[in-house]
Amino acid sequence: MPITARNPHGVWHELRIMRTKDGRSLTDLADSCDPPMSLSYLSDLERGRQMPSADATRRLATALNVPVSVLERRRHVDAEGNDVALRELIREIVREELAAAGAA
Questions:
Q1: Residue pLDDT, tens place only, 80-91
Q2: CA torsion 75→86→16→35, rounded to 10°?
Q3: Closest CA to 54 of 75, 42, 68
Q4: 3-state SS assignment for residue 91
Q5: Tens digit of each residue's pLDDT (9 = 90 or more) over 47-68
Q6: CB contact burial 49-68 (16+ within 10 A = b; e otherwise)
Q7: In 3D, which of 8, 6, 7, 11 has the Cα closest to residue 85?
Q8: Are the CB atoms for 16 and 46 separated by under 8 Å?
Q9: What pTM was computed for the model?
Q10: Which of 18, 3, 1, 24 is nearest to 76 (CA)?
Q11: Chain segment 10-34, per-residue pLDDT in tens
Q12: How far apart are CA 36 and CA 42, in angstroms?
């Protein structure tokens, strides 16, 4: 059963990984948020210098096409300390990449 752990930076150090998985730049992500976010704000998030509001988290999750829970500061981790939602997101990405490679 997952437990809840607190990570002071949430997944913001992993935001760059999620953002670039489809080759998106910081500008692309900023522009795809509704309304758009500033580049400096997103850069600060990636560096763990700021923590986003609930609204900013929702907007980022929508722009990244991930569940809000992936971006929340309180995350569900398994007994080994692995983020459950992020692990599922990574599995989904790998499945999509394998399916695309098989179709090529």
A1: 667 677 778 888
A2: -70
A3: 68
A4: helix
A5: 878 878 889 989 999 999 888 8
A6: eeebeeebbebbbebbebee
A7: 11
A8: yes
A9: 0.61
A10: 3
A11: 457 678 888 888 899 999 999 999 9
A12: 11
